[in-house]
Description:
alpha/beta
Amino acid sequence: MDDDAARFFDVEDRLARLSGLGDQLEAFSRTVDFEVFRPDLEKALAYADGSKGGRPPFDPVLMFKILVIQTLNNLSDERTEYLINDRLSFMRFLGLGLSDRVPDAKTVWLFRERLTQAGAVDGLFNRFDATLRNAGYLPMSGQILDATLVAAPRQRNTNAEKADLREGRIPQDWQDKPSKLSHKDRHARWTLKFTKAKRQEDGTIPATDLAIPFFGYKSHVSIDRKFRLIRKWKTTDAASDGARLREGLLDKTNTASIVWADTAYRSKANEDFMEKQGFVSKVHRKKPHLKPMPRHIQKSNAGKSVIRSRVEHVFADQKSQTGLFIRTVGITRATMRIGLANIVYNMRRLLFLERINAHA
């Protein structure tokens, strides 16, 4: 046996071992038909390029699978390039051999940027949602809305610059320095993140919860109660409120009309909107100002929480498993990042649902 043949069998043996250990990417390849994304990818790339001439150096489906790897592992472009060269599991997922050329960090950035500027992530998300529906995973049993804060690199701005940004203006000093402007995030916002006060060493619990300053964006999602798949989503600045419910977050195709959400989405405008749209509100009621919570409302909220808490699984998966974080500048790129995270979550969820069905 010559050296090339020996190397081939060694690689095959290692890949077989990876399969035996449970290669998640191999499960992705078996369960997700990535070819369904091709029409949307080619359309977006042609639009972003401004022409249909010229063949791209790498296959768009291969490049999209690289974005999936990035999202699954929370990788920078440079780290992605290195690990594709380093890991056999990544190469197998991409269909690359040891002698094949691997896209470099700049190529990955450019591909993602072209999709971002073309606004392609909505179409890609909807394409996979259609795949889920065709596989029998229809939105059922009502829907649950919630939002989570997604951190972005903090900006060090003066009070005058902050005031300009709140008014929607670009600070004069930034206008005169294009390189500085390109590194300034004009869309992310500061907000306060409230967490439950922890029990002290003497056993007492402080009367007030902790308020922690937070800078970044907010990811709003609507999941179906039956399968816990994300059906609708929206990215906003971190200071945005529950009014986003009225901006396309509700899924009218769900087989049930019930909507669960926490008190952030409780308002007369939202309640009126849901009633007119034919939805049944199970949104938590707020505690009366300076009064104790009535017993019947407290009991009702507790019953709603049992169902509403299912949405927390989505955010826990995105943050603990895939490390959701915004590395880029601006809401357009943040939307792309969060949109990819939502697509990848639905892919991971599909793998889980298919395993359950296989053992049923």
